[in-house]
Amino acid sequence: MRTPLTLAVLLLLIATSHGAARPTQGTARVIDITAERFEFWPSEITIAEGEEVELRITSDDTLHGFRIVGAGTNVVVPKRGKGRATARFTGTTPGRYTFECSRLCGAGHNFMRGVLIVRASGAAR
Fold first, then answer.
1. Over the chain, what is the mean pLDDT?
2. What is the 3-state secondary structure (H, E, C) of the chain?
């Protein structure tokens, strides 16, 4: 009689600790970005130092790229209706980070840029 109870408690502890050992999901703030006709919207994003964001990029026209210069982020944004790209970014160092289209998308491709601003902790808004 004691063995089934011990086994049940042991299985419960294993199941509970397994779930707790996984990294928590959903801690990042989600920011939706739209790419269309040589611009990103929004084209200026401000986050706090140390904040993690999940950037969800969709296209309202053709295939685009999304690169954060100097951050090692470079994803392909599918054509309209074909899904979205997701990138995570953590603002570990205050400053301005340029993001741009990284796939040739037409005549105005070179103008397709924006900025991600990381504000220092305690900085006035």
1. 85
2. CHHHHHHHHHHHHHHHHHHHHCCCCCCCEEEEEEEECCEEECCEEEEECCCEEEEEEEECCCCEEEEECCCCEEEEECCCCCCCEEEEEECCCCEEEEEECCCCCCCCHHHCEEEEEEECCCCCC
pLDDT of residue 124: 60
- 62 in Cβ contact with 78 (< 8 Å): no
pLDDT of residue 19 exceeding 60: no
Beta-carbon contacts of residue 82 (< 8 Å; ≥ 6 apart)? none
* Interatomic CA distance for residues 114 and 103, integer angstroms: 15
Q: Are strands 85-90 and 52-59 parallel, antiparallel or unpaired?
A: antiparallel
